Amino acid sequence: MNQDPDRPRRRLMASAAAAALLVLTRGVAAQTWPDKPIRFIVPFGPGSGTDIVARLVGTRLGEALKQPVVVENKVGASGAIAAASVARSAPDGYTVFIGTQTTQASNAGMFIKLPYDPIKDFEPVTMLGSIPLIVVINPSIPATTIQELIAWANANPGKLMCGFGTGGAQVTGELFKTLSKADILLVPYKSNPQALNAVVAGEVSMMVTDPGPSLPLIEAGRVRALAVTSAQRSRIAPNLPTMAEAGMTGYELTAWYAALLPAGTPAAIRDRLHAELVRIMATADVRDKLATAGIEALSSTPLELSAFMDAELQKWSGHIRAAGIKPE
Q1: How far apart are CA 133 and CA 110, in angstroms?
Q2: How many CB atoms lie within 10 A of CB 145?
Q3: pLDDT tens, residue by residue, 261-283
Q4: CB–CB of 286/63 below 8 Å?
Q5: Whether the Cβ atoms of residue 263 and residue 241 lie closer than 8 Å to each other
Q6: Which residues are registered as beta bridge partners of 100?
């Protein structure tokens, strides 16, 4: 059989033409984006802090871009189901992931085999917000400080139960158990709102939770707040001590939210989305509405978010190892 001497050259030319067509197609898509509805994929259920951010920001983004923004809650596996679905989505700017410290940081240490790479599979756009977490207990527990709670747990072996509904919330509970050296049983639920409801009902004793769903319960006296997990006191609950002030050095964790796109999304689309989101997060209306849920509105450059996520991944992985949590 005669070998065609021009065949390799034609293959190379075809590959180059295909690559050029792909670049051209993406360039045209970036210029016309968006020309159809955009999906915000939320890894947790309605009522969660992630959902609150997504719905408020999504509404404002839809108004700015003149296209509907549809919020989809994909619940399960501590957000891994939602994250994996976004990682597999077309990188065309029509699927935006509202990532968190759970999906982009703690999950990497909680799963033996994570169905997505929290760094490589996503294109960072901007931070959206952050919040301290709050340690809350059922009012039937006779404790008004962290140290009183630890003392009660040690005096009542097996009675202090901590609820959690995500991998991140499990880490916060396990870290509390490790640093306090208290006798605490961790109890899993399908979601953090469900775990918080269990604290209200007295099914479990405590939880480390988002301010958004817990602040109304705190104000109504249905749960009692003991401390915040940030390095400094929070503006939303200035009377609550930090964990360090409460005598638990080394317990510093915050929840955060960020906008991410599937890896490979054209830079022009990312930059347009970034500009719109940064403008939205700076508006007084959005900042005030998020503040009522205990969330501080933030923004960042894509590079800043990338560096932040790298640091958070290392931080949460270290806490997971220190707490002795074995990946599943």
Answers
A1: 20
A2: 13
A3: 999 999 999 999 999 999 999 99
A4: no
A5: no
A6: 257
Taking the C-alpha atoms of 209, 215, 219 and 222 in order, what is their torsion angle to the nearest 10 degrees? -40
DSSP letter string over 250-287?
Answer: T---EEEEEEEEETT--HHHHHHHHHHHHHHHTSHHHH
**CA proximity to 137, closest of 252, 240, 253, 244:** 240
Q: pLDDT tens-digit profile of 18-54?
A: 555 554 455 556 779 999 999 999 999 888 889 999 9
Digit-coded pLDDT (tens) for 295-320: 889 999 999 999 999 999 999 998 88
CB 43 within 8 A of CB 102: yes
User: pTM of the prediction?
Assistant: 0.79
Domains of the chain with CATH codes: 36-131+254-322 (3.40.190.150), 134-228 (3.40.190.10)
Distance (Å, rounded) from C-alpha 169 to C-alpha 294?
A: 17
Judge residue 210's burial from the number of C-beta atoms within 10 Å of its C-beta, 0-12 exposed, 13-18 middle, 19 or more buried. buried
Convert the pLDDT of each residue in 115-169 to its tens digit: 999 999 999 999 999 988 999 999 999 999 999 999 999 999 989 999 998 888 8
Average pLDDT, the chain: 90
Helix axes 284-292, 267-281, angle to 10 degrees: 70
Of residues 145, 154, 138, 131, the one with CA closest to residue 246: 145
Distance (Å, rounded) from C-alpha 5 to C-alpha 48? 63
High-pLDDT (> 90) share of the chain, %: 69
Closest CA to 109 of 175, 207, 163: 175
For residues 141 and 161, give the distance between their C-alpha atoms in angstroms, rounded to a whole number.
11
User: Quick one: tokens of 4?
Assistant: 């065609």
Tokens of 186: 């961790």
| Token digits of residue 28 | 């045209």
